[in-house]
Amino acid sequence: MIYRRKTYIIASSFVDEFNALFNDILLPAQLKYGARLIGRWHTQLDEETSEIFAMWEYDTMEQYEEIERRIKADQEHVRRVQERYDQLGRHRYAEVFRREIQQQFFTSTVERDRTILH
User: Fold this and answer.
1) Separation CA 70–CA 8 (nearest Å)
2) What are the beta bridge partners of residue 103?
3) Could you give the CA distance from residue 50 to residue 10 in angstroms, rounded to a whole number?
4) CA 24 centroid distance within chain
5) C-alpha distances in Å from residue 86, one per residue of 24, 76, 81, 89
6) FRET partner for 34 with CA separation of 20 to 30 A, picked from 17, 24, 28, 55?
7) For 17-76, what is each residue's pLDDT tens digit?
8) Diameter of the chain measured on Cα atoms
9) Residue 11 backbone zone (phi > 0: left; psi -120 to 50: alpha; other: beta)
10) CA 8, CA 50: separation in Å to the nearest integer?
């Protein structure tokens, strides 16, 4: 298994809109093509800035790459994302994203069966 953490540092005023974009458009596409969401979390960093990150699970790096390829090739999904960006105002993205989106990959140091309580 591999795990992907995707981290966004955004303006706190954008959290609700960003969560709606994720839940309405981004999450369904990921699930449709086989990604497994472990969880998604939010923390307030200061009065104006928030961090949101998601952890995803994949069987292999090749599976992750195939899922990403299929999502990017899904014209209906791409259209929905572009429409939402237009609704939110594309110019706002430079204002609300405070840092570059980060993505990191991990492997577990514990066997998954050992983490499940019996």
Assistant:
1) 23
2) 6
3) 5
4) 12
5) 15, 15, 9, 5
6) 17
7) 999 999 999 999 999 999 999 999 999 999 999 999 999 999 999 999 999 999 999 999
8) 51
9) beta
10) 8
